[in-house]
Amino acid sequence: MIRMRELRKDFTVRVKAGRLRRTKRTVSAVDGIDLTIEPGEMVGYIGPNGAGKSTTLKMLTGVLAPSSGEVSVFGLTPVPQRTRLALRIGVVFGQRSQLWWDLPLGESFRLLRHIYRVPPAEHETRLRRCRDLLDLDEFLDTPVRQLSLGQRMRGELTAALLHGPRVLFLDEPTIGLDVVSKQAVRSFLAELGASGDVTLVLTTHDLADIERLCDRLVVIDHGRVVHDGSIEALHARYGSRRSLVVDLDEPLPPDFALPGATVTGSAADGHRVTFALDGTSAGTAVAGLVAVASVRDLSVVEPDIEDVVARLYQAG
Ligand SMILES: Nc1ncnc2c1ncn2[C@@H]1O[C@H](COP(=O)(O)OP(=O)(O)OP(=O)(O)O)[C@@H](O)[C@H]1O
């Protein structure tokens, strides 16, 4: 349903070449991306700053024309068929608003209903759902310019969904939000995705968004795809390991070895030891430990996605 083939976007930028001279340089923001996204998928599109995420979303939504290659969304070519496409997609770009700044939030929704010519009953049903799930009622009468960032983002999400799009493109939907608003936005998107009605494509620097929402992770760097798969596949590829953290009554003897586990940390004078589980289960490692040491407490720590992604960016 979303298809990109050898998609490229180059920008020509002027760069300083001496005190007065400027020369032109070409930046390949998107450098040959091939991706297909099927209906109902929830795709996290991540990458370091300047990797080309926003540029890709702009080409998918018809804001920017590609330099070369193909892009289609529901069989439509975004730039020439932008008006038709707009009826089928929803867009939330953290930096840009689709709401009317001086009008109460509810008025923006009414205007959008007219613009998209949504039948009143459909509009009411969708709005009701957003009002309930995003707790909009207390600020529906507030002018948009007076809304907090979190309130505005909830308004933006509603505005993007009122015409019943089948795909929602989100550029940094939780940026700058407090913990509670982030959770509200994530729960809402999770529910939307789980319903299977809407395909989600989101860029974010907050990997908790990805862990909570996405079953597929596409990582780009310098305009190219460097990983495409599940979060588990990412961990498998980069050798992420679970850790076992144990609190001991006495430090372990210096020559202590636990098959399939490697000591990666020691604290509290050797009373707290961390093992990376390379080739054994947590259960086997714990059994091996309690046979030789007095274990007071223990916990198993899942691999951290931040670590894996940091390694991936560094490798890139
Ligand atoms: N209008 C433009 N003119 C010139 N260069 C641009 C333009 N837009 C983007 N770029 C360049 O293209 C590259 C990709 O930018 P893009 O905004 O797509 O990255 P991003 O992955 O969204 O980054 P971030 O995480 O910082 O938002 C960067 O090098 C950027 O400087």
Number of domains: 2
| CATH superfamily membership of the largest domain | P-loop containing nucleotide triphosphate hydrolases
Q: Which small-molecule ligands are present, each listed once?
A: adenosine-5'-triphosphate
Query: Any guess at the CATH architecture of the largest domain?
Result: 3-Layer(aba) Sandwich
Structural class call reads alpha/beta
InterPro entries: AAA+_ATPase, ABC_transporter-like_ATP-bd, ABC_transporter_ATP-binding, P-loop_NTPase
Keywords: Antibiotic resistance, ATP-binding, Nucleotide-binding, Transport
Main location: membrane
Pfam families: ABC_tran
Main attributes?
316 residues, alpha/beta, Rossmann fold, Alpha-Beta Plaits, 2 domains, six-stranded mixed sheet, four-stranded antiparallel sheet, 10 helices, 13 strands, globular, binds adenosine-5'-triphosphate
